[in-house]
Each structure stands twice: as structure tokens, then as C-alpha cells.
Amino acid sequence: MTPEEWPDLPPGYTLKLCVADAFSTTCQAARDGAEDGFMLMVDRPSRCEAALVLRPLDPIQPALTLAYVGLLGLHDGLAAVAPAETPVAVGWPDRLMVNAACVGGIRIAHGPLVEKEGMADVPEWLVLGITVQMVSERDDDAPGTELEYTNLHEEGCRDVTVPQLVESFGRHLLHWLDRWQEQGFEPVRRAFLHDLDDKALKIDANGDAASETEAGVKTFYPLRDRLRQPSWQLPENVQALQ
């Protein structure tokens, strides 16, 4: 990555490169005391991978609604740099969708629950990670045949680069963080529902979700449980662009 390609992030971020596994490396940095806004990015053109340290002041349940903030930031960040007709959506609770297939998503991890400013059960730190598949294998003879997963190149976003996406994500994330901090979860919830691929899903004020069948059978989905592991898993046999 040349200096000209380096993401131009707003004040408040401290961006550095890491060799691999930005999410785990950033979690360790958070344990070691990295400050709010510390971000690591992998310089890998075939896959966008970055992670950010946050230091929330809210108890664990409202703090975990930052997952919605992060996914909206990623959704809007991609929409801003992709061609205008690109069908970008979100899948609950952590997937980024293009043309009804997953291109990646977000991950959340947090530290021990402590007391901060008189509030109990506040995560000492929270790490928000993003991963987006930019390109498939170079020798893919049948692009687009896999319905569950796709990549940006196959969906008409060949001009989008990892630095551009990280920069756009950082700017849109800051917008949603500001709204979340100033207005609470409600505007985030409404925007997420607007961009959600499953219009039958309901999202509660605490971040949990629920669905109901035509027969009236309700199913509840606790956000905290669903964020323990990502609901997506991108293929690992991706070759780096030359």
C-alpha cells in the first residue's frame, strides 16, 4: 500500500497495519490498554479486514447494540463507494449482503464487565471487526454460482479497493456512532430495519429480535447470544491479487 492509498480517516481514529487477523490482534491490543479509536487493518487486496477498539460507557446490553452501528457503518460505507445500482443490504445480526448473498460482515468481542462512572456491567473494552470479500479465486471458472456467498468483484464493484472501503466505513461509522450517542438506539434501529433483507424480522428497543409465523408462532433471538460467534464464514481458499 502506497502512502497515496492510505485511508484518510476523520480525527479520533489511529490506524495501523497488521500482518494478519486484525480482529484477534485488536482484541489483544484492547486488553493491553489500546485507546478508543485504535484501528488495525490488514494490507490484503483480496479481502478487506479491519478492527476497531471502542471503550463504551453503557452496560453490556445497550453496548452490544453497537453491532448495529458497526453494520450500518459498513453498509453505508460500501454503498458510498460502490456503483449506484449495487443492491446492498444487511442481514441480522452481523452480515453484509450484496445481491442477496453474503460478502462478509462484522464481529464483536468485549472485555470483562466492570463498573464505569457509576454504571455496572459495562464492558471494559469492545472490539468491532469488519471483513468483506473483495475478489474470488483468480481461476474461478463459474463466478456467481455460489448463492450463499459472493464478492464485490463479481457484483460489479471491481473499482472498490480495501483502503477506499476502510476509509468510507470509518467515516460512516463515525456518523452512526454520533447518532447512537446523542439520540440512543432508536434511529439506528429504524435505519437498520430499512436496510434489512428480512422484512419480517422485528427488532426490539433493547436490540433483541423476533419473528412470527402466519400461525402466530413467535421466535425470539437474543442479540447477546447471536453475537458470540459470527453467523457468516467466508471461504479461506482465496488467492491474493497480483
In a nutshell, what does this entry contain?
The protein has helices at 22-31, 60-64, 66-81, 162-183, 186-195, 223-226; strands at 14-18, 38-42, 47-54, 88-91, 95-98, 101-110, 113-116, 119-123, 126-133, 202-203, 209-212, 218-221.
CATH architecture classification name = 2-Layer Sandwich
The first-level CATH class is given as Alpha Beta
**Helix amount, in percent?**
25-40%
Runs in which pLDDT lies below 50 for 5 or more consecutive residues are 237-242
The strand count comes to 12
Number of helices: 6
Provide the descriptors you would attach to this structure in a database record.
disordered C terminus; about 240 residues; three-stranded antiparallel beta sheet; seven-stranded mixed beta sheet; single chain; alpha+beta; 6 helices; BirA Bifunctional Protein, domain 2; about 25% strand
Please tell me about this protein's structure.
This protein is α+β, with helices and mostly antiparallel strands. The protein has one domain: BirA Bifunctional Protein, domain 2, CATH 3.30.930. The chain is built from six helices and twelve strands. Strands 1-2-3-9-6-5-4 form a seven-stranded mixed beta sheet, sandwiched between helices. A hairpin with a 5-residue loop joins strand 11 (209-212) and strand 12. The protein is globular, with a radius of gyration of 18 Å. Mean pLDDT is 92; it is low at 237-242.
